[in-house]
């Protein structure tokens, strides 16, 4: 009776924690900006069929803020299309942002659950339970699963591809299903690489080389699937992006690859040592130290030869991908995120073996595996606790989104006519999106803006010389500013939004809410989050003449 309930709980766990992270931290940052703005513009303004260039110039955000290289609209177009039927059920503009992100998050949750099924068939049903527990307690995967980064569009596709790759290894090399699963994996990875992230080409290459060296696949199986994936990917991205960017032909991922890798422009964002992915990013992504220190070594050394072979088939290509990609000087953890489900699956196989051995007779099973099993359970609980703490801290990093929402709640009822708001750079980088802005009349909005007494106009001017001109600021009713000193003129402070600014170590003797725990548990020591003013909500002093 309990087993089906536990299985149902595990099935719901990953999508539930992804949605929980979304609702606790609903705002976005600058790296997500292009895709979230693009989804907004498609949902709100639709896709023009005439006077395309003029319509895009008037309504779409990417025309005014194109970025250093063009990026693909393909993912945003799909998300907007899937979101469209549900917008009529929503009651506030910002809920559409939650809807768009929830759809992406549930897609990635579905991909992770599909891999869980492959783990069950590859390493056993009980190993799939450990896989879910490990995966659901990893902060970065869960937190970013609903965030509109190009990597997270690709992540779901590569995870489904890895499901097919794992299943292919269950059959003899020439078996029909082995070939079919390999074709699926190659097709999906090629498609994801062409449209979203070029580094997936390396990820695909390391897996294909492994298959070829192990004589588990032939070029006759691989090449047609890759050509079909590349052709469909190119047809999709070139047609969609040439239209939205009004440049033909345009393949954004090729432009980005040339700009960042060939020209080396990505290094301008910082460089890291060669071992960064192994010593910093990978432990951070997997989070639970026992997955690396105990479970993975167990999976590749102790358990049956069939399981060892299947573990190596996941481990060797993934580690090879990280090693090759480490040659590029600019490194970010999200560039290697595709390996995490595979490495988690291997760790789950090792954890499952340890868990089963605790029931065996003899000192090794009873004592060694018994203690390791207790450590595994404790490590999962601590990982969930750590992930929860990281979620709480991360949710404090979006003062721009908080400030705009707060401004609307303070000023909407008391405003009329045209209300002009200036949004500074920090606000735009830490949560402000078009989804949060009150929409203009005549758009596809869930608000009845035609009958509303107020029209809100938002300005994102960044030019420093313009911002230093006092006459520029006279047009605005409100401003969101990193510092009031940077806004010329006379302004009233409506509110101040605080944001996370580090951790403070409190010494013994410091009075506070945590006194009981500090006195009886930590002997007076305590950690407290340090919050600092981040965004000031300013209102032009009343009585000044403002343009209407």
Description of the molecule:
- This protein is 59% helix and 9% strand.
- Strands 2-1-3-5-4 form a five-stranded mixed sheet.
- Helix 20 links the parallel strand 1 and strand 2.
- By secondary structure, it is of the alpha/beta class.
- The protein is built from 23 helices and five strands.
- The longest helix is centred in the C-terminal third of the chain and has 32 residues.
- It comes from Rhizodiscina lignyota.
- Its EC number is 2.4.1.-.
- It is a multi-pass membrane protein.
- Main sheet characteristics: 5 strands, mixed
H/I helix tally: 23
Mean pLDDT: 91
Radius of gyration: 26 Å
What can be said about this structure in brief?
59% of the residues lie in helices and 9% in strands. The chain is an alpha/beta fold and 548 residues long.
Salient structural properties:
548 residues, alpha/beta, five-stranded mixed sheet, 23 helices, 9% strand, globular
Topology:
Blueprint: H1 2-24, H2 33-45, H3 52-59, H4 61-64, H5 74-83, H6 93-123, H7 125-136, H8 139-144, H9 150-168, H10 176-195, H11 200-213, H12 219-245, H13 252-262, H14 276-286, H15 289-301, H16 305-325, H17 340-357, H18 363-394, H19 399-411, E1 417-423, H20 425-429, E2 454-459, H21 464-467, H22 470-473, E3 478-481, E4 491-506, H23 515-520, E5 526-540
Parallel strand pairs: 1-2, 1-3
Antiparallel strand pairs: 3-5, 4-5
């Amino acid at each position: 009776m309990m087993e089906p309930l536990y299985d149902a709980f595990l099935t719901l766990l990953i999508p539930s924690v992804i949605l929980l992270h979304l609702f606790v931290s609903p705002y976005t940052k600058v790296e997500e900006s292009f895709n979230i703005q693009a989804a907004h513009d498609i949902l709100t303004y639709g896709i023009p069929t005439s006077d395309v260039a003029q319509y895009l110039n008037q309504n779409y955000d990417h025309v005014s803020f194109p970025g250093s290289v063009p990026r693909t609209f393909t993912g945003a177009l799909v998300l907007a299309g899937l979101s469209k039927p549900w917008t009529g059920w929503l009651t506030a503009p910002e809920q559409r942002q939650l809807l768009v992100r929830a759809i992406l998050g549930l897609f990635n949750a579905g991909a992770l659950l599909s891999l869980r099924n492959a783990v069950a068939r590859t390493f056993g049903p009980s190993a799939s339970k450990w896989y879910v527990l490990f995966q659901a307690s990893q902060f970065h995967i869960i937190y970013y699963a609903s965030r509109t980064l190009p990597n997270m569009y690709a992540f779901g596709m590569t995870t489904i591809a890895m499901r097919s790759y794992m299943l292919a290894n269950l059959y003899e090399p020439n078996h029909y299903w082995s070939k079919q699963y390999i074709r699926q994996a190659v097709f999906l990875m090629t498609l994801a690489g062409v449209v979203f992230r070029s580094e997936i080409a390396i990820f695909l290459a390391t897996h294909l080389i492994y298959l070829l060296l192990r004589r588990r696949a032939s070029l006759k199986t691989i090449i047609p699937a890759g050509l079909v994936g590349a052709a469909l990917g190119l047809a999709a991205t070139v047609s969609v992006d040439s239209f939205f960017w009004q440049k033909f032909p345009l393949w954004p991922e090729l432009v980005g690859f040339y700009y960042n890798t060939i020209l080396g422009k990505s290094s301008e964002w910082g460089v890291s040592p060669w071992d960064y992915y192994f010593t910093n990013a990978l432990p951070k992504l997997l989070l639970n130290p026992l997955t690396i220190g105990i479970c993975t070594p167990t999976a590749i050394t102790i358990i049956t030869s069939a399981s060892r072979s299947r573990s190596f088939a996941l481990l060797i290509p993934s580690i090879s991908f990280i090693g090759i990609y480490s040659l590029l000087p600019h490194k970010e953890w999200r560039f290697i995120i595709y390996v995490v489900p595979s490495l988690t699956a291997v760790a789950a196989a090792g954890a499952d073996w340890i868990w089963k051995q605790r029931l065996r007779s003899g000192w090794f099973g009873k004592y060694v595996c018994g203690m390791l099993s207790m450590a595994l359970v404790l490590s999962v609980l601590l990982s969930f606790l750590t992930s929860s703490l990281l979620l709480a801290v991360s949710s404090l990093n979006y003062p721009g989104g908080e400030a705009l929402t707060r401004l609307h709640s303070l000023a909407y009822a008391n405003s009329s006519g045209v209300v002009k708001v200036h949004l500074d750079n920090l606000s735009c980088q830490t949560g402000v999106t078009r989804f949060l802005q009150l929409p203009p009349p005549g758009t596809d909005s869930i608000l009845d803006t035609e009958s509303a007494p107020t029209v809100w106009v938002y300005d994102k001017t960044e030019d420093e010389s313009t911002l230093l001109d006092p006459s520029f600021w006279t047009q605005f009713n409100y401003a969101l500013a990193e510092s009031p000193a940077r806004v010329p003129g006379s302004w009233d402070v409506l509110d101040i939004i605080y944001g996370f600014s580090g951790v403070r170590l409190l010494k013994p003797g410091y009075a506070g809410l945590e006194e009981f725990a500090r006195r009886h548990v930590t002997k007076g020591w305590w950690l407290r989050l340090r919050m600092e003013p981040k965004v000031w909500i300013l209102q032009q002093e009343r009585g000044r003449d403002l343009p209407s």
